[in-house]
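Entry for the shared binder. Reason: the reviewer on the internal report wants the predicted structure included alongside the sequence.
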Amino acid sequence: MATETPNNVPLRRIAVLISGSGTNLQALIDACNTPRLPHAHIVLVFSNRKAAYGLTRAHTASPPIPTGYLALQPFLRATPGATRTEYDLAVAKAVAEARPDVLVLAGWMHIVSEAFLDVMRGARGLDDACVERAIPVINIHPALPGQFDGANAMERGFEAFQRGEVDRIGVMVHRVIAEVDRGAPVIVREVEVHKGEDLKNDYEPRMHLTEWEIIVEATKMVLDEVRSLSEDH
């Protein structure tokens, strides 16, 4: 896979963690090397679910994108005495070996541990993989900052709006820290919502369209802050 553009501009390297269908991943695939996400390519798509359709999206991309898979429970069964932290370190090792300039959590349905983030920061070494410099980690979350942290945020937010408990809802991309969905926002966008409308047929399609826009915008913003690792080799 090419690491430079025809003008010898190093390609910025993106790694993506997924758990499901990969529609946010597809938005990134479609945007790579366009004006929306220039001089960039995805170097790894990693899933914690073997049947995640996002892996198929990566395999059928042009050119195909390298993939990885490691599920928590099979890992623990296959490694007697292993802990969740050791699983996170195994995932971190796979990411570190891909040498990304940014790591995007695009529907990764695990809470990342402090140990994982320490590896991404370069504060914790691994036996046979190292982070040459800190890798920014961002996550997309279907709620506004501080509003609905954790799982089922879109549904909880929509229901709260319909009950009149909040007057606006939306989506954000934020930097990942140990506290769930509490990292500094990169992009925040409100999503249009109306009383009495249907979640699945009305609000959710609007939400996803917004997600596909801002995951690309936020990835570009973070990449623009760092020099590509390709420039160092």
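Summary line for the report: The longest strand covers residues 40-47.
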